[in-house]
């Protein structure tokens, strides 16, 4: 089968489109014929060697949409079932293997393209908003990197939940109209968001801030977080660690919570099924639609990565297999 592999860490040019052997299917696993996979920023970090260790060669990618090709007789799946999944060993390939706990059926009216945009970002966003952040309708919230995949989803889910005020940050105000169309009330840049949040809240600060950037953004976020507010930290796309003083937390009764979907897939996979069903229903009923910025062929994975790194896109980047 065709797949994209890499033999070393480096730029997008290390990605190689080639022939590889099919993975072996183990117990409680299914073989999936891939329709689409998405490109996530985590793929970039892994390609560069900034996200854990890897044995070469390896294949990138977190999630897929497609159909079941082979399933255990005692499983809930049959050949031809339409699904989304988090595969084992990467997703940039024609066929992948996944544990049955991380495979979820999708209805016929949900296209493979739209389905591929959702697994990582929608399940992650739903958990961040409702379980980790525990956002209330009366809250003012801040969503950093609001034009990205997770940001786009967080804005829509918050709007759907009736959140009082949604403030989104972007690296470039050219993305302002896009984020406002998703449902954000106020858009600002990383340079001025602290002052704008305080102005919007009469100097009280935001109730919940979602931070996937880290670095200096984390410190500025704490400075405009309300007393008893919550900073939800779930990434460091800046490549730098965020820092804070313990006194900034206990004196103000602020909370800092962390979450990783990757850790949860590994250690608590069964906990994702109910959330997956909720977001699949939202997509199938078109209450949520994640814009797709561009679709690349599998052989064009390197170009997809270059577009992600340019940050000159809005929504999700997909790879058609």
UniProtKB/TrEMBL annotation:
Which Gene3D superfamilies does this UniProt record tie to the protein?
Medium-chain alcohol dehydrogenases, catalytic domain (3.90.180.10), NAD(P)-binding Rossmann-like Domain (3.40.50.720)
Domain named Enoyl reductase (ER): residues: 10-319
Coiled-coil ranges per UniProt: none
A Pfam family this chain is assigned to? ADH_N
Decide whether keyword NADP is in the record.
Answer: yes
Keyword Membrane among UniProt keywords: no
Keywords assigned: NADP, Oxidoreductase
One GO cellular component assignment for this chain's record is: cytosol
The cross-references to InterPro entries, in alphabetical order and at most eight, read: ADH-like_C, ADH-like_N, ER, GroES-like_sf, NAD(P)-bd_dom_sf
Protein name as it appears in the record: Quinone oxidoreductase
A Gene Ontology molecular function term of the record:
quinone reductase (NADPH) activity
Q: Which organism is it from?
A: Ureibacillus sinduriensis BLB-1 = JCM 15800
């Amino acid at each position: 089968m065709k797949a994209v592999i890499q033999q070393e860490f480096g730029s997008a040019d290390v990605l190689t489109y080639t022939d590889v052997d099919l993975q072996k299917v183990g117990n409680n696993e299914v073989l999936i014929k891939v329709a689409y996979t998405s490109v996530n920023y985590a793929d970039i970090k892994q390609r560069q060697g900034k996200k854990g260790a890897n044995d070469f060669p390896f294949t990138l990618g977190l999630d897929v949409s497609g159909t079941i090709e082979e399933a255990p007789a005692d499983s809930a799946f049959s050949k031809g079932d339409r699904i989304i999944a988090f595969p084992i060993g990467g997703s940039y390939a024609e066929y992948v293997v996944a544990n049955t706990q991380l495979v979820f059926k999708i209805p016929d009216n949900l296209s493979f393209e739209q389905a591929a945009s959702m697994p990582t970002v929608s399940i992650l966003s739903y958990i961040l908003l409702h379980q980790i952040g525990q956002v209330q309708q009366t809250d003012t919230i801040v969503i950093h990197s609001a034009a990205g995949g997770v940001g786009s989803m967080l804005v829509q889910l918050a709007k759907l939940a009736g959140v009082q005020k949604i403030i989104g940050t972007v690296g470039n105000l050219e993305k302002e109209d896009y984020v406002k169309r998703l449902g954000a009330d106020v858009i600002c840049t990383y340079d001025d968001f602290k002052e704008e949040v305080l102005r919007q809240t009469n100097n009280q600060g935001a109730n919940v801030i979602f931070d996937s950037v880290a670095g200096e953004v984390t410190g500025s976020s704490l400075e405009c977080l309300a007393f008893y507010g919550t900073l939800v930290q779930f990434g460091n796309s800046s490549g730098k660690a965020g820092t804070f003083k313990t006194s900034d937390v206990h004196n103000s009764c602020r909370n800092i919570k962390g979450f990783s979907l990757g850790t949860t897939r590994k250690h608590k996979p069964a906990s994702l099924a109910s959330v997956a069903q909720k977001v699949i229903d939202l997509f199938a009923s078109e209450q949520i639609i994640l814009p797709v910025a561009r679709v690349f062929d599998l052989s064009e994975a390197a170009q997809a990565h270059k577009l992600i790194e340019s940050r000159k896109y809005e929504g999700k980047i997909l790879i058609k297999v």
